[in-house]
Amino acid sequence: MDALVPPRRPPAIGRLLALPAARALVERHGRPLVVEALRAAAASFRAGEEAPILAAAEAWLDHHTRGPRRVLNLTGTVLHTNLGRAPLPEAALAAMAEAAGATDLEFDLEAGSRGERDAHCEALLCHLTGAEAALLVNNNAAAVLLLLRALAPRREVVVSRGELVEIGGAFRIPDIMREAGCRLREVGTTNRTHPRDYAEAIGPRTALLMKVHRSNYAIEGFTAEVAEAELAGIAHAQGLPMVVDLGSGSLHDLARWGLPREPTVREAIAAGADLVTFSGDKLLGGPQAGLVVGRADLVAKLRRHPLKRALRLDKTTIAALAAVLRLQADPDRLAERLPALRLLRRPQAEIAALAEQLRPALAAALEGQAVVSVEPCESQIGSGARPSDRLPSAALCLRPRRGLTAEALATALRRLPVPVIGRVARGAVLLDLRCLEDAEGFAAQLPLLAP
Ligand SMILES: *Cc1c(COP(=O)(O)O)cnc(C)c1O
């Protein structure tokens, strides 16, 4: 038997390492990683198959060591969570680079003594929202968690049943409440909650009233909800705080730029909210962060909580956030300077013209494999902002010819040097060009497309 079945023994790693192609990999990645990659690759080949082992090792290294790479988001969802949400402005990149080395992160240069890291953004946030104080954490989920832990341990938080949202991934209001160690007191029904529902739920164990912005869905028809000002009135009459989880947290009225209206942080503060939490990388257009603004005494309480230390922001993120807030403070020029807003308000005619300009090159690259046309489509803001509002846009539509599928076309696009991410719908690939700013880069790599 042994003589008939040759053992599938892989070649020795030492022999592979001596090959010129392996030496080139060692030059790039260092010896220990290349040894690990060769071991992983060699297991699936037998002696004599050296070229495929080296190719597999190179693919392994590429896959496991390169970190997040640049892609072209042509999904039509501008703030796409899986694709990193808001694209950062140049000003933020420069600020991150400046803060990368030693920096006055927690150092007061005037006094020469210890400073406060959130202070770099606090004055701007107060200016932009009308709040007394501000605090920064890692994301909005962390902001809500810290708020509940600091203000409502082992006590009740009153929330409308219509606002017990799941944001996607693992952020569900009831779960966060449990994790924070407080008790959720649901009031009202899915579609209707009235002032008396809140008032009747308040008791000796109540810590605060909470309103959650229904980010990713809409309730229509026979509905009723209690506005922030009225809810604040009910809470304050009982000496309780009212807090708002605003989610995308716009700092300006988007109607100013012809976009669907979103509630602003300033409005929530003006309506009487004691604390408002929101994300840094949604409509604010900055890095991933969670922001809490509101009453100084409550913010101070959150700042003193041990969890704040575990959720604090990194210096480069604070630098980027401060840069974006500086842009936000000049709304007249914001639409040109902030990529997220620039992309959101891009007119359909401009996007359609870009699609017409790129269509011939794409059609040539897919000659005989797909029919390429320009079609109107609808983009969405994403990250839970205004799910029912769509932004008119234009797409390159790739309809595969017989023998090829839309999925295969989408895969080929993802394999380009700068991966192109579109969406597959009704047997075609749609590339919504709203977020394509590097048209030349896109066109330059089309000849490499190989479905
Ligand atoms: C997006 C969102 C969150 C979660 O924010 P992250 O910054 O992604 O952690 C929480 N609440 C609401 C209402 C949201 O829209």
Automatic annotation (TrEMBL):
<keyword id="KW-0648">Protein biosynthesis</keyword>
<feature type="domain" description="L-seryl-tRNA selenium transferase N-terminal">
    <location>
        <begin position="11"/>
        <end position="41"/>
    </location>
</feature>
<keyword id="KW-0963">Cytoplasm</keyword>
<dbReference type="InterPro" id="IPR018319">
    <property type="entry name" value="SelA-like"/>
</dbReference>
<dbReference type="InterPro" id="IPR025862">
    <property type="entry name" value="SelA_trans_N_dom"/>
</dbReference>
<comment type="similarity">
    <text>Belongs to the SelA family.</text>
</comment>
<comment type="function">
    <text>Converts seryl-tRNA(Sec) to selenocysteinyl-tRNA(Sec) required for selenoprotein biosynthesis.</text>
</comment>
<dbReference type="InterPro" id="IPR004534">
    <property type="entry name" value="SelA_trans"/>
</dbReference>
<keyword id="KW-0663">Pyridoxal phosphate</keyword>
<dbReference type="Pfam" id="PF03841">
    <property type="entry name" value="SelA"/>
</dbReference>
<comment type="pathway">
    <text>Aminoacyl-tRNA biosynthesis; selenocysteinyl-tRNA(Sec) biosynthesis; selenocysteinyl-tRNA(Sec) from L-seryl-tRNA(Sec) (bacterial route): step 1/1.</text>
</comment>
<dbReference type="InterPro" id="IPR015421">
    <property type="entry name" value="PyrdxlP-dep_Trfase_major"/>
</dbReference>
<dbReference type="GO" id="GO:0004125">
    <property type="term" value="F:L-seryl-tRNA(Sec) selenium transferase activity"/>
</dbReference>
<dbReference type="InterPro" id="IPR015424">
    <property type="entry name" value="PyrdxlP-dep_Trfase"/>
</dbReference>
<dbReference type="Pfam" id="PF12390">
    <property type="entry name" value="Se-cys_synth_N"/>
</dbReference>
<keyword id="KW-0711">Selenium</keyword>
<protein>
    <recommendedName>
        <fullName>L-seryl-tRNA(Sec) selenium transferase</fullName>
        <ecNumber>2.9.1.1</ecNumber>
    </recommendedName>
</protein>
<feature type="modified residue" description="N6-(pyridoxal phosphate)lysine">
    <location>
        <position position="282"/>
    </location>
</feature>
<keyword id="KW-0808">Transferase</keyword>
